[in-house]
Amino acid sequence: MAAKKTKTTTDKATTDKARWGLAIKKSKQPRCWGELDDPLMAEYHDREWGTPLHDDRRIFEFLILEGMQAGLSWTLVLRKRENFRRAFAGFDPAKVARFTDRDVKRLLGDAGIIRNRLKILAAIGNAKRFLEVQKEFGTFDKYIWGFVGGKPLLSGLRSFADMPARTPLSDAISKDLKERGFKFVGSTVVYSHMQATGMVNDHLVTCFRYPKGKAKARGGKQK
What we know:
By secondary structure, the protein is mainly alpha-helical. The chain has helices spanning 2-26, 39-47, 56-69, 74-79, 81-87, 93-96, 101-108, 117-137, 140-145, 168-179, 187-196; strands at 153-154, 200-201. Helix 1 (2-26) packs across helix 2 (39-47) and helix 3 packs across helix 11. It starts with a helix and ends in a 22-residue tail after the last strand.
């Protein structure tokens, strides 16, 4: 019975994704990116990128994925996302923090993820640092969103040529994270994390995901 239930759940998820992919192809909404011939990227653009995220486990998920992406393409990471979720205990920081050498060996042998020893060790170490921040601030969300005063920054970008790879704010967050012992959190990685978790909304003003009627508001509280 359990196997049958799993198959049904998997089939439903596959069907839902297929329906979403079809909806994307039929959609005429203006996007700043998220190619129509790649439903996975389009879905990510439409449903996640730039959406304010305040759940600690989801924030930790992106912290791992952004670190794994360093030097690689985001498309590759998205295609391996479910494999990462399985391999990293559902992105539960408390469980990842308890990973041992045996787990490292398991992860290095997992062809479904990015098998980079330094990145894997960093993910485990970052889980420990993540828990320390939670203990200090109550939630990691409270800590990281404190840098922007708890509100998303709206860039008001009209062209990708204007989109930065890093900012003075991402420099400051990166510096603070490194001082706390986090790894693979350079300013460029941090800025990508800010975009992914909605701390900054970098959708172009012509995109349907950009909040209409909002003035440009780049800046924010720094620690």
